[in-house]
Amino acid sequence: MADSDDPTGDMSDGLQVELFHPESDREPGDTNIQAAGFDIHPVVFPVALAIIALFIAVTILLGDTASSAYTWLFNTIGDTFGWFYLLAVNVFIITLLYFAFGKYGKIKIGGVEAEKEFSDFSWMAMLFSAGMGIGLMFFSVSEPLYYFQNPPSFFGAEAGTGAAASAAMAQTFFHWGFHPWAVYGLVGLGLAFFSFNRGLPLTFRSIFWPLLGERIYGWPGHIIDLVTVFATLFGLSTSLGLGVAQVNTGLSYVGGDMLGAVSVPTGTWPQVALIAGITLIATLSVAAGLDGGVKRLSTLNLYLMFALLGFLVIVGPTVYIFGTWVEGLGAYFGNILALGFFTGTLNEAANGTPTAWTVFYWGWWIAWSPFVGMFIARISKGRSVREFVLGVLFLPSLFSTLWLSVFGGSAMFNSLMGNGQALATYNEVGQTVAMFALLEQFPLGVVSGLLATLLVITFFVTSSDSGSLVIDHLTSGGKHDVPRTQRIFWALTEGLVASILLIGGGLTALQTAAITTGLPFALILCLMCYTVYLGLDNEYQILESEEFAETIQDLSEREDVDVVTAGDEMVTDISDPGDDTATGTD
After folding, report:
1. How confident is the prediction for the chain on average, in pLDDT?
2. Which residues lie closer than 8 Å to 557 by C-beta, 6 or more apart?
3. Which residues are within 8 A (CB) of 502 and not within 5 positions of it... i.e. 6 or more apart?
4. Is the backbone of residue 489 left (phi > 0), alpha (psi -120 to 50) or beta?
5. How many independent structural domains does the chain possess?
6. Which positions, given as ranges, span the membrane (predicted)?
7. Which one-letter DSSP state was computed for residue 79?
């Protein structure tokens, strides 16, 4: 297992280097500036910082005008480019499936000698945890309730009925299922391949080596990494803003409405204060390091998550929950193509659904993809392309649908067969209270409400810390042994940006930031489909070549190694002839 403090893992070596040669003799961060306790890229860091400072200044100075501008921009992007977001994400799914089930499926991430750094169970567990976050806590109840009252028109369901509940679960599964994980999978595969198979820095510019060559170290590469920094920063700020809104509402609702003890004020400024407090905790976590801070909090996240999930399964409508899961999956799979391409253009009854939800989600997932993509790239060395794609697409997606069925299904039960109080409170107060209004309908509602609030806080801290790691990595030229103060700096910056967005326009500003930065990054991802194809095809051609066979023969004679093959197509592993445990990739 790789050192947890090394976010890049071990680069390619051995046979992989001998076969493919280093793509570049450059070292990560070899042009960095080291001063005042920082180790920064001379272009990406200062330019990113200057643009962020300009954004903060303009938002503060414009005041209410900024809020109106964010609302206009959100609607304009959704109305004008919604079709592009939908088409792009479908292309990402098709591309990944082609890589997995085509001739490139047996190519191993890390090269022919690469070994898995994590067991299958650990890898699957980490994919599950990557699929969880503030978003699922925020929307797992509120989104099904919204669609229960406003079912997508092509389902033909009447609002507030059982058919509407089925449509609501299918639509929610769509937003949290295969499509977002196709975005993460594409990014993760590109980062992993060009880092581990080509020995390039674990940054986004490296993925464009087939097109740019050494120019990835010039302005084309700088622009790619800058767009990635902004997408990550604003995508993360959206999550932090949503999370703190839910924490604020949770403390107020549990403390005031449920306990009748403490009336916590709600609104922008209390949320800014909460961001400051939780960001301070995140900063302390960064200072403690990955092993001392975020690793322990991530473990705590898993315990809290399964405790809350298991609690509701036990005290809630258990049979109804699992029935909802199965029926929801059927409705989801039965309509996945229609959902994936539905823009509402030809249906006046679409009531803005793609703009309000799907386009926001797709922009958010695209903006969030550097964070999740770098994580899954880091943990996936030694796995075949097919294993990687199937694992990333299916495991987190299925777990997300289970989580949504437990909470969303319980909300449907309360609405259709219970007292309907969760829906009534949601309509009266808003989506931030939906989770707590639902938990109140079951035994120990105060305890589970406080548990949910604590879980959102820990997700906030771990997201901030991990996001800081990604941004720090990008602004240091891919170098990973940089001063910890830089990650602390970015943790504070994330909290500041989230606060400014809340002050300048509330949740609409946060949503606008996600889809605005996601738009140019979506173009980068579309081009990434082609560059990853070029990289995989080049590796496949070499693995199929006579030169490769001759190299293997020479190594077998020279180094007394045994070659283990998978069929007649390609070599998939190199092992010691005395080691009986050697296996292929599949």
Report:
1. 84
2. none
3. 241, 244, 268, 271, 272, 275, 509, 510
4. alpha
5. 1
6. 43-62, 82-101, 121-141, 181-202, 223-248, 268-290, 302-323, 359-377, 389-413, 433-461, 488-507, 513-536
7. H
Residue at 558 is within a domain = no
Listed residue (540, 184, 107) closest to 377, CA to CA: 184
Residue 584 lies in a domain: no
The reply to whether 551 falls in a domain is no
2 Rama class: left (phi>0) / alpha (psi -120 to 50) / beta: beta
* Cβ-defined contacts of 566-571 (< 8 Å, 24+): 566/106, 569/103, 569/106, 569/544, 570/106, 570/107, 570/540, 570/543, 570/544, 571/112, 571/543
**Dist CA 236 CA 282 (whole Å):** 13
Question: Over the stretch 433-476, which tens digit does the pLDDT of each residue have?
Answer: 999 999 999 999 999 999 999 998 888 888 888 888 889 888 99
Domain residues for 229?
Answer: 15-543
Q: What is the pTM of this model?
A: 0.88
Tracing tokens 């809350």 back to the chain, one arrives at 308
Give the C-alpha separation, 579 to 272, whole Å: 59
Per-residue confidence band for 570, with pLDDT thresholds at 50, 70 and 90? very low
Question: Is the residue at 563 inside a domain?
Answer: no
Yes or no: say if 436 and 422 are a contact pair by the CB < 8 Å rule: no
The DSSP H or E segment spanning 148 is helix 134-149
Closest CA to 331 of 405, 395, 263: 405
CATH of the domain at 23: 1.20.1740
Please name the residue ranges forming H helices in 8-133: 15-20, 44-62, 64-101, 120-131
Reference 332, options 398, 378, 269, 270; nearest CA is: 398
Neighbours of 383 (CB within 10 A): 25
